[in-house]
Each structure stands twice: as C-alpha cells, then as structure tokens.
Design a protein that fits this description.
The chain is α/β, with parallel strands linked by helices. The chain has ten helices and ten strands. It has a five-stranded parallel β-sheet with strand order 2-8-1-9-10. A three-stranded antiparallel β-sheet has the order 5-6-7, covered by helices on one side. A hairpin with a 2-residue loop joins strand 3 and strand 4. The longest helix has 17 residues. The site of 2'-deoxycytidine-5'-monophosphate has 13 residues, from helix 2, helix 5 and helix 9.
Length: 231
C-alpha cells in the first residue's frame, strides 16, 4: 500500500490544471476538489441574491450570509464527473458561465470568503489522499503538501482552450477576444490581490504546458507522483 499524500496543483485560470488534476485523481484513486468551483459558487450566490452591483459586492451582507452558503460536491452517476452543488442545487453548468467568470475574481479577493473556503478545504483534505487545484493550495491551504505543482501557460493559449471549451458546450455568443480579456483581467486580479495572491510556492515544481498535449501532461504528472511516493 503506497503512502497517502496531499497533492496541490496551482496555476492561472484555464491553464489545464483541472483536467490534469481530475485525471491524476482518477488514476491513483484519490478524491479531487476543484476549489475554483467553490469561489464560483459563492459568486453565483451573490449574483442570484443581489449582492453584486457592477463591480461592488455588499461585503457586510455577504459576511452575514456566509454561514448559509453550503457548497458540496457530488458525482454525476452518468459521467462519473464531480459536480458542484450550492445549497443542494446542482450549479455545475451555471458556475462556468461568463457572468460568473466576470465577477469571480472580485468575490475571491474578499478576505472573509477566503477564510471560510480555506477552512472548508482544509477539512476536506485532512485525511490526505486528495488532489486539490486552485491558486493558493500549495501556499496557504496545504503549505505542507508532499507534492506541489505550479502550472503555467501563455494567456493566449489559455484563452483559446477556454474559448474552445465554451464553444463545445454550445455557447456561441462569446468571442475569443472576450475570453482573452477575461483571462487577462483575472490573471491581474488573482496575482495582485492583497489576500493570498496567486504565486508559486518555493517548493513547487513548475509545468509549462503551452506546447504539451493532454496525454503528455498526464504522463508527466503521474511520473512526478510516482517519484514522490516511491522515494
Ligand atoms: O480555476 P477557476 O478559473 O475556476 O477559478 C475561478 C476564480 O476563483 C479565479 O478567478 C481565481 C479564484 N480562485 C482563488 O482565488 N483561489 C482558489 N484556490 C481557486 C480559485
């Protein structure tokens, strides 16, 4: 029986980290947690409850309501994929829409939101045997994780991937330029916010997957994992 470890995968939006994190978790039999989905679910809650006006969030009201926002994950029996639930309702599709992507960095910069979600993420990973992806997993959520990966790729590569994904899901009212602008804006906010900005942990291994196929990056990640657990 191999030792169970904690695997933290951080990086920019649409860097392909979720795809590789999910695949690795499935291959090695670990739980997978998409922490971006949790920030997206809180953002959806804010949008649905009138807590966002333009780029201004009613932080005082949101703080009062944080205890009432319950985010859970469930497995879709048909696809085997993990899906996000907000107060019992499946919101997996809605949280990926542009109206949520356009506001999520603002909500994710609010300290009270981060404290609540980080505490929940630490509880979810307390038994190890978990692959968690996000922005601050290796730096804040699990600074002692045995395996830390920092995924990098150009903004244009990432925008193209996200655009292709939206198109494949039937979303035709968005242009590549819209997606690139959103990716660049989010990069900027995620890297410059005061509260746990996106940055590489000192002991993270960097993966630039700009020119890698999905199969190549999966093989690379599995190799890193095997080297760490067999050490
Ligand atoms: O990975 P994603 O694009 O679904 O993430 C959505 C947003 O949530 C992104 O703008 C940054 C934020 N986020 C964060 O601040 N911390 C995390 N651990 C995960 C995501």
């Amino acid at each position: 029986m191999k030792k169970k470890i904690t695997i933290a995968i951080d990086g920019f939006s649409s860097s392909g980290k979720s795809t590789m994190a999910k695949k690795l978790a499935k291959t090695i039999g670990y739980a997978y947690i998409d922490t971006g989905a949790m920030y997206r679910a809180v953002t959806l809650y804010c949008l649905n409850n009138g807590l966002i006006n333009g780029d201004i969030v009613d932080v005082a009201e949101l703080e009062c309501r944080l205890a009432d926002i319950r985010i859970t994950f469930g497995v879709n029996a048909a696809t085997g994929a993990s899906e996000t639930y907000l107060n019992g309702e499946n919101v997996e599709r809605e949280i990926r829409e542009m109206r949520v992507s356009g506001k999520v960095s603002i909500v994710a910069a609010i300290p009270a939101v981060r404290h609540a979600l980080v505490a929940q993420q630490q509880r979810m990973g307390s038994e190890k045997g978990i692959v968690m992806d996000g922005r601050d997993i290796g730096t804040v959520v699990f600074p002692d994780a045995e395996m830390k990966i920092y995924v990098d790729a150009s903004a244009e590569t990432r925008a193209q991937r996200r655009f292709d994904e939206l198109r494949s899901k039937g979303n035709t009212d968005v242009t590549y330029e819209d997606v690139l602008r959103n990716v660049q804006e989010r990069d900027y906010i995620d890297q410059t916010r005061a509260e746990s900005p996106l940055r590489k942990a000192d002991d993270a291994i960097v993966l630039d997957n700009s020119t890698m196929t999905i199969a190549e990056q999966d093989a690379w990640l599995l190799d890193v994992y095997n080297r760490i657990v067999n050490k």
